[in-house]
Design a protein that fits this description.
Length: 401
């Protein structure tokens, strides 16, 4: 049966061929890097093997510049991708959690203001599903406390807040080109920044990285061709159950390599970057249609998007007012051929590999736990059928006991 994948970027055979041809040319990575820096209104860019590897590099560069050896803590939102605390730990630093506001999913500026910053090196945002966090407030707090801010825009390339691009707040912006992100080459990450000393530290760290392996790049290109073909609902319905693909699983992992991004894959992603405005508009239109349908469904709590924000909606999230109904709702949606997910299964304080690095005060994160127990995400990509909102609403009403 046809099945709408939870997230993705449709890539037609022509786009695939054009993008790959661009990737195989010389200096193929320049359009992506310069395009991202211009987009974020930053001066410089660094391309890395994955978003999580890029985060390791950024945190190490910040540490290189720190004159205070006590500053080893990195504040991360208590509900975000598990790769974020994994990158903090891999960089040799200590994760600290700040709770999220479940109504907006953002790092809670009130909670952040109360933090003891005496050992803090940096604060990291999340912008999950492409919805901007309260970035202006977070940036003001980071500046006031004299800590670095990393604007994690792995899911929010194309979003804006207060007229500024997400990924352009704070000192360093981060983008990812993994399979569920706003544009994809299946793997890849980027940093953008302007700060002179930080840029020099990033140059040193980046120059020391090993180049991407040619065999790994060749394997990824084969997988990309499969991805472009199989994302279509007709085929996704067939392949999604294959165990080897590990689709939809969230696992904690610190063992990934930190290498340069393949020039070929960066060239591929650079071609997709030109289509970003179209891709983002399509996702925004689909998200608004889902919002209109869900606003009439009992038991749904919509996310409050911060004022003056244009989300990029890599997915469309909402919360169940009664979390005990979520499993039944997900089952109904799945039966209707819709790639609905429960997103990351736990708040980070409930992930054992993270919790053992945390002080006791970080082990209670009620906002993050509420999100983890109640969130549902829906697809917004261009393969979403026009009747998706109606089908979602019908499936959800059908799940009421
Ligand atoms: C995906 C993601 C990352 C890591 O990016 P990868 O390219 O998958 O390593 C970091 N932060 C957030 C919020 C993400 O969604």
């Amino acid at each position: 049966m046809a099945f709408v994948a939870p997230a993705g970027t449709p890539i037609s055979p022509i786009t695939f061929a054009v993008s790959l041809a661009r990737g195989l040319g010389s200096s193929a990575e320049i359009p992506l890097g310069e395009g991202l820096a211009a987009h974020a209104k930053h001066r410089r860019y660094w391309l890395v093997s994955t978003g999580r590897a890029a985060m390791v590099l950024a945190l190490q560069a910040m540490r290189d510049l720190s004159k205070d050896p006590q500053r080893v803590e990195v504040i991360v939102p208590a509900y975000t991708c598990y790769s974020v605390p994994a990158s903090v730990i891999k960089a040799g630093l200590k994760p600290r959690l700040c709770d999220v506001d479940p109504t907006s999913l953002s790092l809670d500026p009130e909670a952040l203001r109360k933090f003891d910053f005496s050992r803090v090196l940096a604060v990291v945002t999340a912008n999950l599903y492409g919805i901007p966090n309260h970035l202006q407030s977070i940036e003001a707090i980071a500046r006031e406390r004299g800590v670095w801010m990393l604007d994690d825009s792995a899911q929010a390339l194309g979003a804006t807040h207060e007229g500024r691009p997400v990924g352009g707040f704070g000192d360093v912006g981060l983008y990812s080109f993994d399979k569920g992100k706003n544009i994809t080459s299946l793997e890849g990450g980027a940093l953008v920044a302007s700060h002179p000393e930080l840029s020099a530290a990033l140059d040193r760290r980046h120059a020391a990285l090993t180049p991407a392996s040619a065999t790994r790049t060749a394997t990824t290109i084969v997988k990309l061709a499969a991805y472009a073909t199989l994302l279509h609902p007709t085929l996704y319905g067939v392949v999604r159950k294959l165990p080897g693909l590990g689709l939809g699983r969230t696992v904690y992992d610190e063992t990934y390599p930190v290498e340069r991004y393949s020039g070929t894959l960066a060239g591929f992603a650079g071609t997709l970057l030109k289509r970003l405005p179209t891709l983002t508009r399509g996702r925004q239109d689909n998200a608004l249609a889902l919002q209109a349908a869900l606003s009439k469904v009992p038991g749904v709590r919509l996310i409050d998007v911060p004022a003056n924000s244009q989300p990029a909606y890599a997915r469309y999230p909402f919360l169940m007012t009664d979390p005990s109904r979520r499993a039944a709702v997900l089952e109904k949606l799945e039966a209707a051929g819709i790639g609905a997910t429960a997103s990351y299964p736990s708040a980070l304080n409930d992930v054992p590999e993270v919790a053992r690095h945390l002080p006791a005060v970080d082990l209670e994160m009620p906002g993050a736990r509420q999100v983890a127990n109640a969130i549902v995400t829906l697809p917004t990509h261009a393969y979403s059928p026009a009747d998706l909102p109606a089908r979602v609403a019908a499936a959800m009403r059908g799940s009421v006991a």
